[in-house]
Amino acid sequence: QVQLVESGGGLVQTGGSLKLSCAASGGTFSAYAMGWLRQAPGKEREFVASIWRSGSTYYVDSVKGRFTISRDNAKNTLYLQMGSLKPEDTAVYYCAAARGAIARNKYDYAYWGQGTQVTVSS
Q: Which of 12, 21, 73, 77 fits 30 for a cystine, CB–CB 3.0-4.6 Å?
C-alpha cells in the first residue's frame, strides 16, 4: 500500500511562488508515474501535472511555463514548483501515484494523499 503525504501549501499573493512536496512510502516509488491534481471549491478534481517513470512530464495548459514537476527517487519525494501564481490556482492540491509507469488521466491514479491547501490572494 502506497502512502503519500503532501506539504508546502499556504497563502501567497498573486505572482508569488510555492513549492509543494509529497513524501511517499510503502511502495517502489521509482516504478510509478506520479502526478499532482487539484480541486477548487465546487469544481471537479483536475489534472495539473504528471511525471512518468521515464521522466517524461506533462502539464495542463493553464500551468505550462509556470509550474514544474520533478521527482527525487532516492528520497521517494515528488515536487511541484509553482510560480507566477494566480487566484485561479487556488485549490486543494493532491499528490497521486499511478498503478503503473504511465498515467494519461486522473482515473489512472490509484493512491492519493490527503491534500494541501494553496490559496492565492489577489
A: 73
